[in-house]
Design brief:
- This protein is an all-alpha fold.
- It contains one helix and no strands.
Length: 74
């Protein structure tokens, strides 16, 4: 009876270790997916910011040119 109990305990331990490893692997995969998502979001934000700055630069140039035209003597 003791041998059977020991074998059952070993089986239970192995199953707990397997479940724990599976949970660790799932958590790692979730973190990796989260990092990939955040990286993509950051890239999109940076692209938007750069485009916005480009538009603002063109607006400043256009406004600057307009002010120069208005200040030229006729």
């Amino acid at each position: 009876m003791q041998v059977a109990d020991i074998q059952q305990q070993e089986l239970n331990r192995a199953q707990r270790e397997l479940h724990l490893q599976m949970a660790i692997d799932e958590a790692r995969q979730a973190r990796e997916q989260e990092v990939a998502l955040r990286t993509e979001e950051n890239a999109q934000t940076a692209a938007f910011n750069q485009a916005f700055l480009n538009v603002m630069g063109m607006l400043v140039q256009a406004m600057s040119g307009r002010q120069e035209q208005n200040s030229l003597p006729d």
